[in-house]
What we know:
Elements: E1 27-30, E2 37-42, E3 48-51, H1 54-59, H2 61-68, H3 80-91
Antiparallel strand pairs: 1-2, 2-3
Amino acid sequence: MTDAHLPRSALPRPGETVPDERTMQYRRVACGHCGAVVQAAKFSIQHTSVQWDTAAVRRCAEFARRSDAGEQTPLIERCEAMRSSIEAAALDGQLPVAPP
């Protein structure tokens, strides 16, 4: 059923937020390159939530390299090695992808 087929009362009003009723399962994922461990959840194939703690940031080889080059770690968008590890965990079924 598309939005065009829903009754007007079921559609959100402009500016209204719609709660996401999917339950997320955060799982520990270790980086295959440096061993840093984060908590990750897949809201969809495209949307991943990653929670870094201080220990993971300190252990991350890419963050260390970029920090040594003068970047501030809070401004580093992602670690490509961790991203690959999270995708591999999702493909292996170790990190569930929430149904739409």
